[in-house]
Amino acid sequence: MRSRTGSARAATCMALLAVALSLTGCAGFTRWPWGTTQRWPGPMKETQSPLPEGDAALYLGGPEEVLVVRHADPVKVRPAGLAAGYPLTFYDKSVRVQAGAGITSAPGGRIEVLWPSGNSIVLFDATSGVVGSPSRGQASFVLQSVASARIDFKEADQVELPTQARLSAASGLFVLESVQPDVLRVSNRSKGPGEILFRDAVITLDGGQVVDLPMLEAGASPQQGDAGLQVARVPGYALSWSGAVEMQRENGAVRLRALGDHEIRAHGVRLRLERDETVVFEGLGANPAPE
């Protein structure tokens, strides 16, 4: 009788131990209240169904083809027409893609895009863009975000910068760097000139020169000039205006005073003043105009 009782107790203990061990594997019973494994905050709710197509709809596939080479992880390629991309692994170092494909480099990554003409662009760190289709009127490459990039022109071509400004050159090496969240630095590391189409301004970047471009929320896509604008030149650049504006020249500077409705344009920036307000434009290194 005693042996049977001992065996029953041992069996009961073993059963309770098995149940306890099984419960420890269930995350829902290790937290209070029981029945949920989701901590705060709760699951994200979709705000749109179906999800937007993203770049796949904005940049349609084109006939142009490029070679993409991985130099350092992590990097990713999104083929044209697809909503998601895939990482390039160590055994899949290069791939050919068509216009409309997305190219992304994460922090620490480096990826290069090569064209048949010999032109190339290298994306460093957190930099991304889309292979453009010149046959559709696009630049050969569209940069969407830039931490650092290097563009090497062997033949005349265009690259679209963030905010839709365009960099064009016949040859030479150009380096792009994000020096501030809202400032992009473009450096010409070659002997030949390059041009940046920034709104209604054309910025000529000679060999060795550097320019800092503002990342305007309104965008910086090239715009056609207005034939009715009045133009005045300041050493190094030109400014224009329309409407009721009084212009005076002082020691190489141009002083504009608002008399009514007007618009002043300089270096791709549009300016409107209150009546009788004054703005002075002068070249770099010039003597300050008198107050």
Description:
With 291 residues, the chain is mainly beta. It has two domains: 55-214, Jelly Rolls; 230-281, no CATH class. 9% of the residues lie in helices and 44% in strands. The longest helix has 23 residues, at 2-24.
List the helices and strands and how they pair.
Layout: H1 2-24, H2 55-58, E1 65-72, E2 75-78, E3 86-87, E4 94-98, E5 102-105, E6 110-114, E7 120-124, E8 127-131, E9 141-145, E10 148-153, E11 157-160, E12 166-169, E13 172-180, E14 183-188, E15 194-198, E16 201-205, E17 210-214, E18 230-234, E19 237-250, E20 253-266, E21 269-271, E22 278-281
Parallel strand pairs: 9-11
Antiparallel strand pairs: 1-4, 1-6, 2-3, 2-5, 5-8, 6-7, 7-10, 8-9, 10-13, 11-12, 12-15, 13-14, 14-17, 15-16, 18-19, 19-20, 20-21, 20-22
Sheet with the most strands, sense and barrel status:
9 strands, mixed
List low-pLDDT spans. Answer: none
Task: Give me the secondary-structure category.
Answer: mainly beta
Tally of alpha and pi helices: 2
| Shape type | elongated
- The oligomerization state is single chain
Query: In percent, how helical is the residue content?
Result: under 10%
User: How large is the share of residues in beta strands?
Assistant: 35-45%
- From the 3D structure, determine the CATH topology of the largest domain: Jelly Rolls
The CA-CA distance between the termini, in Å, is 113 Å
By CATH reckoning, the class of the largest domain would read Mainly Beta
What number of domains? 2
- How large is the radius of gyration? 30 Å
Give me the CATH architecture of the largest domain, please. Answer: Sandwich
